[in-house]
Amino acid sequence: MLDVLLAGVGGQGTVLAAKVLAQTAQDKGWQVRTAETIGMAQRGGNVTSHVRMGDGGEEVFAPLLAHGTADLVIAFEPGEAARVLPFLAPNGVLVTATTPIQPVTAALSSVPYRADRVVQRLETQLAGTEASFVAVDDAALVRTVGSRKVLNTLLLARALAAGHVPLDVDDLRHAIEVCVKPAFVQLNLAAIEAVVAS
User: Fold this and answer.
1) 39: CB partners within 8 A, 6+ apart
2) What interhelical angle do 138-145 and 182-197 show, nearest 10?
3) Which one of 13, 27, 77, 181 is least enclosed by Cβ atoms within 10 Å?
4) In this structure, what is the dihedral angle of CA atoms 138, 144, 149, 151, given to the nearest 10 degrees?
């Protein structure tokens, strides 16, 4: 069983990324179940997508992950990575974008939200454990592609390129063509190539 959790802020494409990942698994013949918890996503709130895949031929009966069970966590924003860290399995992989999205609470606080400190804290927390941490300079990749609209594909491709799960970027390409609106397919494929070239 392969359990993946995706976490981000409304509008970052977390739900589409989960759909693409699920399609990638289905294309391999795996049983897959997904679920989203979206809360106040339309107002910049958090979005969490659960993807459970029977990569060993298992039946998947329930879509939601429990704390400490995610083989892979993909966070679209550092604060979201910190929020969902309890889901990471002891030997799991945390992949996070490093570009912050200022939460509403930051505007109301006298203490600034410093994403660099959040990333540093995550790295410190996972140092010396069996878990792996991958901080993605998403701003650089976005500049290469020319659009922030493909952040979800950039992070998926980076997570798969790391080789910690039995899926790869070649598997991802077909799922993009199936799940993404035709007008955006080439842009998303360009995002995959940017990750491969980096």
Assistant:
1) 45, 46, 47
2) 120
3) 181
4) -30
107 CB contacts (<8 Å, ≥6 apart)?
Answer: none
47 - beta bridge partners?
Answer: 8
The whole-model pTM stands at 0.94
Whether the Cβ atoms of residue 46 and residue 7 lie closer than 8 Å to each other:
yes
Least confident of 34-43, 65-74, 76-85: 34-43
Contact 196, 187 (CB under 8 A): no
DSSP type of residue 197: H
Contact 39, 61 (CB under 8 A): no
Q: What is the pLDDT of residues 71-116, one digit of tens each?
A: 999 999 999 999 999 999 999 999 999 999 887 777 777 888 899 9
DSSP state of 54: -
DSSP state letter for 166: S
Distance CA 115, CA 91 (A): 24
Whole-number Cα distances in Å, 159 to 13, 74, 125, 162: 15, 7, 20, 5
User: Distance between CA 174 and CA 48 in Å, rounded?
Assistant: 24
CB atoms inside a 10 Å sphere around CB 196: 12
